[in-house]
Amino acid sequence: MIHDGHIHTPYCPHGSTDSLQSYVEEAVRNGFQRLTFTEHAPLPEGFQDPVPDQDSAMRKKDLPYYIGEIQKLKQFYRKDIEILTGLEIDFIEGYEAQTADFLREIGPELDDAVLSVHFLRSGSGYTCLDFDEHAFRHLKEYFGSLENLYSDYYRTVRKSITSDLGAYKPKRIGHITLVRKFQKLFPRTFVDTKMIRDVLDTAAAEGCSLDINTAGLRKRHCREIYPPLPFVKEAASRGIPLTFGSDAHQSGDVGADYEQISEYVEKHRFPE
After folding, report:
1. Are 223 and 216 in contact (CB under 8 A)?
2. Keywords on this record (predicted)?
């Protein structure tokens, strides 16, 4: 079943105003048989969004409307495509209990979800790793080197995989190489292969699947899939289930670059 498992919506404050219906229409047009809406879930209780406009995630008061709109689309398009209600959940170190409480509350209403790392601890606060190159530079300076920043990011991803977030914890781990988003501005003088393989080891041990996310191809300072194709192949060889995700923040990106990884995702996708 051809599935785009990572789609955003107008409920994302930093995204497009394209309607949910326009995303569905694009998926149908591109021959997809299933899609998951995975809007950024409300951030944990007590967490202060560190980005300037505090627009990293949807507002909690909008959550019922988001779910209700998807339910209507499920019925309207039931003969054309399977639509799943999902969220992208942020793993924020130090807010595991609040995240588990939220998942306990919302989990029964979800069909699917992605667990991702965007925020890293930096001093007494947090920084959004992928907000822009200035935030990334701040983290590099805080950690003392690019290699130390990469190491802490991958450590946090591993912790997201092993943390106890309750019965509704997402089993799919999002864009595990997001730390490479600005790699053309901040080129590595080290090899992060072992760091990525450690994440794959942890995912395999915990029975998790991976979000194979093509958004990095559309980012001018990245230009590669998260994770890159050699690691997609390696994950597949280890039997780790894979789900394609366009990470579309506008309807025109639904299904983007699927053909580059379809051979691997279709053979090793998450069981139906």
Report:
1. yes
2. Amino-acid biosynthesis, Histidine biosynthesis, Hydrolase
Quick: pLDDT tens for 131-153.
Answer: 999 999 999 999 999 999 999 99
| pLDDT digits 0-9 by tens, 46-58 | 999 999 999 999 9
Residues of the chain with pLDDT under 50: none
**pLDDT tens digits, one per residue of 17-60:** 999 999 999 999 999 999 999 999 999 999 999 999 999 999 99
Residue 148: helix, strand or coil by DSSP? helix
Per the omega criterion (within 30 degrees of 0), is the bond before 44 cis?
Answer: no
Which domains are seen in the chain, by residue range? 3-268 (3.20.20.140)
Q: Which helix (H) or strand (E) holds 120?
A: strand 119-122
Q: Is 128 helix (H, G, I), strand (E, B) or coil?
A: strand
SS3 letters for 69-103?
A: HHHHHHHHCCCCCEEEEEEEEECCCCCHHHHHHHH
Dist CA 149 CA 223 (whole Å)? 20
Question: In angstroms, rounded to a whole number, what is the distance separating the alpha carbons of residues 140 and 204?
Answer: 29
Among 246, 199, 243, 192, which Cα is nearest to 219's? 246
pTM of the predicted model over 0.85: yes
What is the phi/psi pair of residue 236, to 5°?
A: -60, -40
Are 113 and 166 in contact by the 8 Å Cβ rule? The answer is no
Pairing of strands 242-245, 82-90: unpaired
Expressed in percent and rounded to 5, the helix, strand and coil fractions of the chain are: 40, 20, 40
* Cα–Cα distance list, 232 to 38, 91, 178, 203 (Å): 21, 22, 14, 13
Residue found under tokens 């990572």:
6
